[in-house]
Amino acid sequence: MISPSEPTRRRFLGSLGVATVGALAGCSDADGSEPTDGATSTERSEPGELDPREANVVGVAATAGESGYEFAVELRHDDAGEDGYADWWQVEQLDGTRLGRRELLHAHPNEQPFERSETIEVPSDVDCVVVRGHDQTHGYGGQAMLLALDSGATRTVDQGSAPDSFESGDCP
């Protein structure tokens, strides 16, 4: 068993920060900005412009297991600033078909960003997924992430007030 003081891969990567992890994964340029090659209109033009009132996915990792993938999703939301809070995140196929959802039952005002995990069954022919956040007040909005399951590479996208579908070329 790992003691709380022993370093783990998740703690190490979490301590590096999302921009550094993105750069290591090949998802960001050296300056921390996002790639522009083949960029779609849904990608953020300026890194760090997250609206704290919306449920922003700021990190995601997936580990294959016997009953599906365990998704560890990190959300940032100003839970203390409004009556509403980030109430769920979900994993979808590129066409928007929902594969699974992690319900969040309360606000996390003193834990920002916060991470929660869920095991979700993913069909064997799916190699890239979308992870979206949602909050009680604004619904969809903020930053979502595309995740390549085989490599773990991610790409951030601005999901807007209505969820977009994506093409396989949008995947990292």
Give the terminus-to-terminus CA distance. 34 Å
Q: Under the CATH scheme, which class of the domain at 51-170? A: Mainly Beta
Apparent shape: globular
Number of strands: 8
Relative strand content = 25-35%
Order of helices and strands: HHEEEEEEEE
Give me the CATH architecture of the domain at 51-170, please.
Answer: Sandwich
How would you describe the oligomerization state of the chains in this entry? single chain
Low-confidence stretches: 1-47
Order of neighbouring strands in the sheet with most strands = 4-3-6-7-8
What summary fits the major beta sheet? 5 strands, antiparallel
Rg calc:
15 Å
User: What would the CATH topology of the domain at 51-170 be?
Assistant: Immunoglobulin-like
Would you give an account of this structure?
9% of the residues lie in helices and 34% in strands. It contains 2 helices and 8 strands. The chain has helices spanning 9-16, 18-24; strands at residues 56-65, 68-76, 86-92, 98-103, 114-120, 128-135, 143-148, 154-158. The strands form 2 sheets. A 5-stranded antiparallel beta sheet has the order 4-3-6-7-8, with no helix packed on it. Strands 1-2-5 form a 3-stranded antiparallel beta sheet, with no helix packed on it.
Task: Please write out the topology.
Layout (H helix, E strand, L loop, with lengths): L8 H8 L1 H7 L31 E10 L2 E9 L9 E7 L5 E6 L10 E7 L7 E8 L7 E6 L5 E5 L14
Antiparallel strand pairs: 1-2, 2-5, 3-4, 3-6, 6-7, 7-8
